[in-house]
Amino acid sequence: MHRIFGDILLREQTFEQISVVVQGPVQNYQGRTHHEEGITQRCLESIRTHLPGAKIILSTWPDQDLSGLVYDQLVISQDPGTNSVAELPQFPKNYNRQLVSTQAGLAQVTTPYAIKLRSDNFIIGNEFVGIQQNYPKSESEQKVFTEKVVINSNLFRRTSHGRTVLMSPSDFFYFGTTEDLKKIWQQPLIEDQPIAEEMSKAMNSASTTSCTLEAEQFYCQIWLKALNPSTKVMQHRFDYTKKDIIAWERFLASNIIIADPETMGLGLRKISKRKLKRANEFSHIDWLKLYKKYCDCSITIAKDYQQWSLEIRRAFKLPLSNLSSRFKHK
């Protein structure tokens, strides 16, 4: 059924079965000054251009200037502000904001498929629709979603300071079934989070020389723990074993598709762009190698100059970064 749906979308270029939740502020405010002028208008217009027929749900905060913005449905939520839980000072300060605006938008979705898109990004194509349907195989014991969820590779960390990191996906773009996106984003606020105390204790017990968790690792651990209560709670950025690395790779291969922005149809804000891909990020080919290893050994991975260049840079840069980090955190 879903394979047929994907074929129809690509052939007829009709996207009525997709809703796009554009979440976040539409302008700068105190403490947040990197929102590009007009970026949300560009975001909304890009959806009309590249996803004709898709429903646009703008989920934002009160007192935002909405002039010139075109959408199908507006959702206004009370801004929870930065996290102010005194006993959890190490938690990412905008965790509640990310949850509230995303949840409020997804709650209004009635279509089978949805996109979670930050209000400071935009789309430049619709290739992610086909990509989402192209890799259907999974390890049955690893599968937690009804279909794979497409996440962009930009800021989807593979390494940090030259060392492997786990559970650090980007928060820019998610595309999949509405049911699956809700599994990721329908989590309690930080003060109501059932594993908050466990995470706080784990993080506080980490050595002072350890690298703290990335914000994305914090988010990801919460929804992974909700999906699988046996998920390990990490003390710090590199708190894992070889067994944990394999478990994360198998999860990615069976549940996620990591796609490169320029080939999936995602446009990036200026501060996220780089002339060369960051050496610490996943690429689509990195993910394809995991998919081939764990799910479908029959696929062919084409040779790619950009991937070759990326791996050459990694071979030189990552060991130096690792060495520098170990000296710094002695």
Automatic annotation (TrEMBL):
Q: Report which superkingdom the organism of origin falls in.
A: Bacteria
Q: Which InterPro entries match?
A: WavE
The record's annotation in Pfam families points to: WavE
User: What is the recorded name of this protein?
Assistant: LPS biosynthesis protein WavE
Organism of this sequence: Photobacterium angustum
The taxonomy runs:
Bacteria, Pseudomonadati, Pseudomonadota, Gammaproteobacteria, Vibrionales
